[in-house]
Design brief:
There is one protein chain. By secondary structure, the protein is of the alpha/beta class. The chain has 13 helices and 18 strands. Among the domains are: about 160 residues, FAD/NAD(P)-binding domain (3-Layer(bba) Sandwich); about 90 residues, D-Amino Acid Oxidase, subunit A, domain 2 (D-Amino Acid Oxidase, Chain A, domain 2, 2-Layer Sandwich), CATH 3.30.9.10. Strands 1, 2, 8, 9, 10, 11, 17 and 18 form an eight-stranded mixed beta sheet that branches. An eight-stranded mixed beta sheet has the order 5-6-4-13-14-15-12-16, with helices on both faces. Strands 3-7 form a two-stranded antiparallel ribbon. Helix 2 packs parallel to helix 9. The chain is globular. The structure holds flavin-adenine dinucleotide. Flavin-adenine dinucleotide binds next to helix 2, helix 10, strand 12, strand 16 and helix 13.
Length: about 375
């Protein structure tokens, strides 16, 4: 990042001058908020500041499931509050994102989702199967389908899985391409005259009489009418005490496997593991955070032998039984979790709104969160 001492007059004027709104974080929430804010306030000067060369939290690291909950996840989440409202926020968020960019830009495909249960998980499978009618009734007014879920155990053989005793299908789930999604958002932001400045780490947010001052690592400072902190898992770095707990997720992608045909998105182990086949036939597999919650409660990128061994075992024992496919990519990303399932969207300091904590379903929740953040920013 350029040192502030060497910024030209033109750079000060065009990029670091006073702004009506500064958005910190160019993930899905920050970028969707920027676009909705531009719609609401066409004349405002809005700038997005991103620490990484690319957005570097979760938005380009995720699995691209356009999901709103498998039955075993919903069973758990129902204990934490109003499940219908939770699913509605996810479903409407997905609709909002698709409407904002168009399905082509996201590579969105309504592939349907499956939840797998191994033979030794008969009790959980039976519990979930028994809830199919209940969840179908609960979700029908939200998703507009009478039968969101159905028992698809007879399809297990078709996929070639080993040791899978039951398979439940979610007819309304889809997949998308997170890279194309973020690229489309970045292009739309620049086209809407919202600069997205990468390599711009924010070090402090200070309250001022006119709103807030945003201090950058290069020594520059931007005077802002209001600030949106869309920094998700990293939120507590700028806003100490905010109830956001990081959770790292590890992912791998294999060599292309044209001999395998897995159309759909697949969930396993109560949503803690997930896989899908990519358009170039590679298999993407992620998860395993629950093997060691303490180790994965970190914002640091990294892979662990424990999680990678688990993922490889799942691949070779269940998904594509046989020798381990070559692994061509491995990475980690970090999510933000908290006590509630709903994202945190709140004025946490005078002039500073936070919109964070989309947990593991930010693809679905981000556009609604960005929209609500923009509404609050534009009204302030
Ligand atoms: C491995 C993995 C798999 C996932 N799979 C799915 C899935 O299939 N479906 C789904 O719905 N969700 C999934 N998620 C969750 C989803 O990706 C997130 O909920 C969502 O991307 C969160 O978006 P965000 O904008 O809130 O945060 P982020 O994308 O994390 O964006 C925050 C941004 O803020 C920037 N930042 C932080 N601090 C600063 C600072 N001081 N200065 C400047 N910039 C800063 C970061 O660099 C980052 O780019 C997954 C997440 C992971 C990690």
């Amino acid at each position: 990042m350029q040192n502030a001492a060497n910024l030209s007059y033109w750079e000060h004027q065009a990029f670091f001058g006073p702004a009506d709104a500064v958005i910190v974080g160019a993930g899905l929430v920050g970028l969707t908020a920027a676009l909705y804010l531009r719609q609401r306030r066409p004349a405002w000067r809005v700038v997005v500041l991103e620490r990484g060369a690319l957005p570097s939290g979760a938005s380009t690291k995720n699995a691209g499931f356009a999901c709103f909950g498998s039955i075993s996840e919903l069973l758990e989440q129902e204990k934490r509050g109003d499940l219908q409202a939770t699913v509605a926020a996810r479903w409407e968020g997905l609709a909002r994102l698709r409407a904002l960019l168009g399905d082509g830009a996201l590579a969105y495909e309504p592939v349907g989702g499956y939840e797998l249960f191994r033979r030794n998980e008969g009790a959980l499978a039976a519990e979930c199967r028994a809830k199919i009618d209940y969840f179908n009734r609960l979700l029908a007014p939200v998703v507009g389908h009478a039968r969101t879920f159905r028992d698809a155990s007879d399809e297990a053989g078709r996929f070639g899985f080993r040791g899978v005793g039951a398979l439940l299908k979610n007819e309304c789930e889809g997949s998308l391409d997170p890279g194309r999604l973020v690229r489309a958002l970045l292009a739309r932001a620049w086209a809407a005259d919202v600069p997205v400045l990468t390599g711009c780490a924010v070090t402090a947010l200070e309250t001022t009489a006119g709103g807030a001052r945003v201090r950058l690592a290069n020594g520059a400072a931007i005077e802002a009418g209001r600030v949106l902190a869309a920094t998700n898992a990293f939120a507590a770095e700028l806003l100490p005490g905010l109830a956001v707990v990081p959770g790292r997720g590890q992912v791998l992608v294999t060599e292309p496997r044209p001999d395998v045909a897995l159309r759909g998105t697949f969930h396993y182990d109560r949503g803690y593991a997930y896989f899908r086949q990519l358009p170039d036939h590679r298999l993407l597999l992620g998860g395993g955070r629950n093997l060691d919650f303490a180790a994965e409660e970190t914002t640091a990128p990294g892979l662990t032998g424990r999680v990678q061994t688990y993922l490889e075992g799942l691949l070779r024992e269940v998904i594509v039984p046989g020798p381990l496919p070559r692994i061509d990519y491995r990475w980690s990303g970090v999510m933000g979790f908290g006590p509630a399932l709903a994202p945190l969207i709140d004025w946490v300091r005078p002039g500073v709104l936070a919109a964070v904590r989309c947990n593991g379903m930010g693809v679905a929740l981000s556009a609604g969160t960005g929209w609500q953040a923009a509404e609050q920013l534009s009204g302030a």
